[in-house]
Amino acid sequence: MLFIEEIINLVRPQILVLQVCSNDIINNSYELELASYVNNNHIPRPYLDGEGAITVLTPQSKLGMAITALASHSRLASWVLFRLDTLMALNAQTRTVEYEIRLSGFGHPGFQRALALTERILARLRAALPASVKLYAFSVDRQEPFTAALDALLMQQGIALIDGVADAVEAARLRGEPVLAADGAHWAPSGHRIAANIIADKLLADLHQPPLMSLPNWEARQ
To answer: Which of 114, 130, 137, 205 could form a disulfide with 29 if both were Cys (CB 3.0 to 4.6 A apart)?
Structure first.
C-alpha cells in the first residue's frame, strides 16, 4: 500500500481495487514479521513506524542476516537455508506469533500495535486520493482474527468490500478444480479467473450508476 503512494499521480485512477490477505497485518509490522516463521520472507521491506516515518528494515536476527548473506553466494547454503526455513515453519505452528494471536485474539499487544499501523497505512492511502476515487478491496483468504480485523479497518476508511472471492476459490479447490499454483498457496489462472468474474460483476453493477459529472481534481493535489 505504501508503494501506491509513489505511483498514484502517474496512474490517476477513478477506481482502485486492493487485494488484501490475512498476512498483511503481520507484514505491516516489523515486530510481528520478525517473530513469524510462516509469513516472513527475510527480505528488506518498508515499514511505517508509529511516528509516520517509513523505514526499510530486514526482519531477521543478526545471525539470520549473516546466513542469508552467505546463501546469496553459495547454492549449497541457499538450499540449506530453504530447507531450514521450511522445517522451522512446519514445526513451529504452535510457537509462531500467528498461533499466539489466534489464542489471544485482539488482546495480543503486538497485534493491537500492528492494527494501529495498518489503520495509519490505509488512512494515508485514502488521503492520497481525491474523494471521488472509489476504493474497493477483496480478500484472497479468510483466517481469523486477521480477516475480520482487516475488513473492519477497510470499512472504517470507506473502502467497499467485494465479498465472496476467497470462498468461491476455496469451494472450487474442494471440488477438485486446479485453482492453486504449484506452490499450493498462490492462485493458478483458473483461480484468478474466478476472482476476476466476481470482481467484474461488482464493478459493473456499480458502474451502471449515473456517470460522474467531473473527473478527480488531481492537479489541485499536486
So the answer is: 114
